[in-house]
Amino acid sequence: MKRLHHGSLRENNRLLVLKTIFEAGEVSRTEISQITNLSPTTVSRMVKELMERGFVVESKKEASSLGRSRILLAPNSKAYKVLLFDVGVTFTTYAIGKFDKSIKILSRFKTPDTPDLFFKKVHKILETLPEIDAISMSFPGMVNMNTFEISYVPYLDWRKVSIKKFLRTDTPILMDNEANLAVFGEIHANSDMKTTLSAVYVVIREGVGTGLYLNGKVYRGPSFTAGEAGHTTIEFSESEKCRCGNRGCWENYASIYWPVRKFGPDKLAGDTILEKFHTLIEKPEAKKLINDYIKNISVGIANIVNILNPEVVILGGEALNFDDETIKRITKEVKQRALFEATESLKIVRSTFKGNPYLYGALLLAIEKNLFHITT
Ligand SMILES: [Zn+2]
């Protein structure tokens, strides 16, 4: 019993040291001791074990002010490799993510219409990459992380898809909704948000979804549907049905389809909806339409702000193309519509994340869940 207790404490300390090195990127033994409150002797012993097991490498020597060099520790990029997928409505991007948080995009393919064809493609990719520690996937819809089931992806019309049935592999699989991964990634990577406890990440793409970070954790809800703000009703008189079956959903007014449809898709250059949207926002004659579109986006955000009172709303997806003036206009519109008290300290910002936030979130999810055994 004593031995087991000692063993588990040692294991916990080792994980704590490893997590500290992972989060810091580069850190000295002395700093680890200060951060973790573990004694310098314990830290040195744990670091030695972690280096022997290939998780940690000594990074570089920096001359200190006293003229002595110091040795920094860093995560070993070779320690953990994750095959990452960002499943988009139009294209799926895949990449390799490593323990040093680096991500190398391998390629992308057109997202097949059916889960069967999609997972066949995943199998083929997996066969070419034998040394993978985990597979982590971002989906633009509802994903049940407990049952490994894609509950519903409206734009692809995938319902109740059992991942274990389609993807037969011994490699651990992780999956989450794209907006959940984006908020998780942003909080982790953005140094301005180190003390943020509540944030809403709004993904504006072909669909609209939100990732909720509440009381310092991603909030997914008991059946993993939390944050589906795109399917809240903002219009009573709408005759056309949304893909979800409801009428007058926010998504139909705030997704990139709305301004493209209003302007006329045939009048816009580009093969995909994304390309057409990019053409549209550059057009001077679309200014009034874009103003209306901004209002549509702001209405939904004001509703979310009244319900959740977040510290910050992060705009991502195609909203990354919005200039500072547009962000200011959204902020003004939201403040006019939402309760004064709910917006007093509210910040509305563009995501600062460089690169693909869904892939980054998927990498973090795999490392935290599979390696650190943390529920994110
Ligand atoms: Zn809907």
Automatic annotation (TrEMBL):
Q: Which InterPro entries match?
A: ATPase_NBD, ROK, ROK_cs, WH-like_DNA-bd_sf, WH_DNA-bd_sf
| Pfam families reported for this sequence | HTH_24, ROK
Which SUPFAM superfamilies does the annotation name?
A: Actin-like ATPase domain, Winged helix' DNA-binding domain
UniProt lists the family membership as follows:
Belongs to the ROK (NagC/XylR) family.
Protein name, UniProt field: ROK family transcriptional regulator
Species this protein is from = Thermosipho ferrireducens
